[in-house]
Amino acid sequence: MKARHPDSALIIATHAEFMSSEVVIDVSGCDPDLTPHLAIGWGCRVSVPRRLVTVFVDEERSLPLLKALAATRAIAVTFGRGTDHKCIQLKGVDAAFGPPGRGDAKIMDAYRERLAAHFEQLGMPRARTRVYLGDTEAPAVAISFTPLAVFEQTPGPGAGEPLR
Amino acid sequence: MSAIRLSDLRVCLDGMFPSVIATAAPDGTPNVSVISDARYLDAHHVALSYQFFNKTRANILANPKASLQVTDPNTGSRYHLAMRYLRTETSGPLFEAMKAKLAGIASHVGMGEVFRLRGADVYEVEDIECVVGDVAPRGAGEDLLAGLRAGLPLLRRAEDLEDLLDATLHALALHLGFHHCMILSADSARRRLFTVASHGYPQSGVGSEIAFGEGVIGVAAAERTPVRITHMARDYLYGEVVRRQFAAAHGVPDLERRIPFPGLAESRSQLAVPIVTGECLVGAIYVEGLEDGAITPLDEDACVVLAEQFADCYRCVMHLEAEDEEDEEPPTDWPAQGEPLLVRHDAHDHSVFVDGEYLIKGVAGAILWRILHEYEDTRRVLFTNRELRRDPRLGLPEIADNLEARLVLLQKRLDERRPGLRLQKAGRGRYQLQVLRPIEFDTAERPLDA
């Protein structure tokens, strides 16, 4: 993970549609003492030309993760779909965060709506999804990184294998 | 440690939301992974399934720190558990219990041979934080405790196996709220279980069989550990995904024949609990529900307590059944009249057919064939468990013969099918045959001749 992957644009382009769909997003980083931290994402923005992936998190509820990212900048993010367990994981070493940009609120709103509808199909009432996602009025943070590798995370013997 | 108790989060560990674990490699690279089975061990420990050697596995071996996210399926509340990896168990009760659940899923998706557990990773939980939502209310098990308190005395009052089966179903259905349940008896020699009592199904299913290792019930019996599946769609979908991934990687188009679910066709939650006395497997209690998450960890606790009580009472009633009553009751005279019953016996598996209709097979079939011939020869209608147990022609195993369960099965099949024959309890350790129509054997075969 030290060298920048030459195909990061290709990686992003291949998986952008899936990452922006009704997937559960889990974001992880770790402190310098190797203590890992987790947060769920509130949506994703993909910029193919800039080779950047941006995920949004609830600032107040993600403070340990943000602190870890500020210290180490190493990040892992999974995108998993409940209906078929399809899951991928992106990793990067240049995570940086700040306020969401113009238009990001719409991305987050659309994402929450897609996820709530998806969970509803799986038998989860919308009220419960609202609890799961947290207070949608709370301030959000945009975490951006350049993916260096994508890994297969769908359950099975191939989980953990690099994808191209 | 926080004020939140790990025991309050048991329902989160097997909810519809898969648990997510974050770990870190020694070089500081984080990793996120979904856990297929997370299990509450005690107030400070959880176990996670280890099926494939992956990055999570490599990380915890090098750096034991981990963070687990669990979600309450009833509220949507999310929790983060700060954990430390302690060890991996590859044998013993914990490993067997987790393996059994995996095997229960695997047998339904035809992956019995390749879908296996490598170990149960045990973690110490150092802190729990409720990230979002409200902490689960405590005291959810009060109804079950009251149910056990009301139900257990019914079992202790049972005087014979039939009483015990009825009392157990009554306790399950009325006091513990399981509207679909069955009790199966183990035939360890044939490695099969047969249904001896059920509640809440259109057909009683008495006499239906399942092999050790097949489905949730068969795996619970084979491994002698409870198996609970709470989100059928999610758990079996997970199994299907692994099966497809394996087939894609290894080019195996079809691994095994599928096995249909027992009981309810639309079952969404299932629990099978083995009934064990000492070294002997007596049978299993099985309950199921129509909704995801209908059977909770506390329900499992209650059923395990009930199965323990059943096992104790079973020992008592077997001890009683082994003794004939001193006072022999005179047999009731039932005049056989009307068209003769045509009775046929297949010596291959002791199947018995009455008027061309299949009635029963196995040891229960052999018993019926024997007592019918005895009746024809001598008009004798009273039979003792003791004499049947000593009859080598019945093929009973020397240890754990389960004779009483087979007699209850025979009695219930005759009650259900009403072929003109009945079997009734006639005091302790004794049964009376009632022949309502004359008997005609359709071959010259004698009872259980070699």
Write up what this structure looks like.
In chain A, the strands form two sheets. A six-stranded antiparallel beta sheet of chain A has the order 2-1-5-6-9-10. Chain A has a four-stranded antiparallel beta sheet with strand order 3-4-8-7, with helices on both faces. The mean pLDDT of chain A is 88. Chain A has 164 residues and is of the alpha+beta class. Chain A contains four helices and ten strands. Chain A is globular. Chain A has one domain (8-155): Pnp Oxidase, Chain A, CATH 2.30.110.10. In chain A, a hairpin with a 5-residue loop joins strand 1 (24-30) and strand 2 (36-40). Chain B has helices spanning 10-13, 55-62, 93-108, 142-156, 161-175, 215-223, 232-250, 297-321, 362-378, 385-390, 403-417; strands at 19-24, 30-35, 38-42, 45-50, 65-71, 78-89, 119-132, 181-187, 192-199, 209-211, 227-229, 269-277, 280-289, 341-346, 351-354, 357-360, 382-384, 421-425, 430-435, 439-441. Helix content of chain B is 33%, strand content 28%. Chain B has a seven-stranded antiparallel beta sheet. Residues 252-262 of chain B have low confidence and may be disordered. Chain B has 450 residues and is of the alpha+beta class. In chain B, strand 1 (19-24) and strand 2 form a beta hairpin. The termini of chain B are far apart. Chain B is elongated, with a radius of gyration of 26 Å. Chain B folds into three domains: 6-132, Electron Transport, Fmn-binding Protein, Chain A (Pnp Oxidase, Chain A, Roll); 142-228 and 268-321, Beta-Lactamase (2-Layer Sandwich), CATH 3.30.450; 341-441, Arc Repressor Mutant, subunit A (Orthogonal Bundle). Chains A and B meet through strand 1, strand 2, strand 5, strand 6 and helix 4 of A and strand 1, strand 2, strand 5, strand 6 and helix 7 of B.
